[in-house]
Amino acid sequence: MAQTPALGNGAIVNGASFAGATAANGALAPGALVSAFGVNLASATQLGLSVPLTTNLNGTTLTFFAGSSTFAAPLFFVSAGQINAQVPFEVPLNSAITAQVNFNGQLSTPIQVSVISVSPGIFYNTDTNGNNVGAIVHNADFSAITAQNPAVPQEYVDIFCTGLGAVNPSAADGAVGPSSLTANTVATPTVTLAGQAITPVFSALAPGFVGLYQVAFQIPANAPAGVQNVTLSINGVSSNVVTMVVQ
Questions:
Q1: CA angle at residue 230 from 226 to 232, to 5 degrees?
Q2: 103, 6 in Cβ contact below 8 A?
Q3: What does the DSSP assignment read for the chain?
Q4: What average pLDDT does this structure show over 85-113?
Q5: In this model, does residue 26 exceed pLDDT 70?
Q6: How close are the terminal C-alpha atoms of the chain, in Å?
């Protein structure tokens, strides 16, 4: 018999920024990538290896409830302690949504989450100096921006993030972003680099990826050199702060 799964309060977080998703701070957005943490969530580690992603991996599901409506989340990964998933685009905007894990018929206690229209999070890695280096690449060849390969003023670069909300044309849950007709974000984000606000030239689901958004912008000619802070904001909601190196 499967052991009872459990999710703690605040156990579902933005998959890029790891900002909490409790009703207090509303860190979930339709279409966003999230991670859920708990115990007894699955019997073994398993990846979702085909698209569109399945909503059941080896007997584990993650479901969002809004009244009598249910929304099963497409799953990237499950293990005993973690689930990586996409919030279905259809989950309504509401401060009284609950989430529940079903593991082979054993149900976790539902936890409350808040779903808002956008909740941007930028993917990052923390380097040896403690900088949260953003997933930002050179647009010309998609190589990573590093101290040895910095961004150059006036070049175009791309940020990879999640939680930018609705897209047009609409996208199917668990499906990759289209490449022939890009699924552009309904709202236009603003990038802030070293305190300077920049309007992107592209903001859409990243072609070929599920739940991943791509934002392209031009580095200002007067951008200061060195390690600089970068954030995204959309509909007045700001992302986590990451860094990038400018030449």
A1: 165
A2: no
A3: -PPPPEEEEEEEEETTT--B-STTT--B-TT-EEEEEEESS-SS-EE--SSSPPS-BTTEEEEEEETTEEEEPPEEEE-SSEEEEE--TT---EEEEEEEEEETTEEPPPEEEEE-S---EE-EEE-TTS-EEE-EEETTT-PBP-SSS-B-TT-EEEEEEE----EES---TTPPBPSSS--EESSPPEEEETTEEE--SEEEEPBTSSS-EEEEEEPPTTPPSEEEEEEEEETTEE---EEEEE-
A4: 94
A5: no
A6: 58
Compute the distance between CA of residue 174 and CA of residue 24 in angstroms, rounded to an integer.
27
Contact 187, 164 (CB under 8 A): yes
Q: Position of tokens 């999710």?
A: 7
- pTM value? 0.95
pLDDT at 2: 66
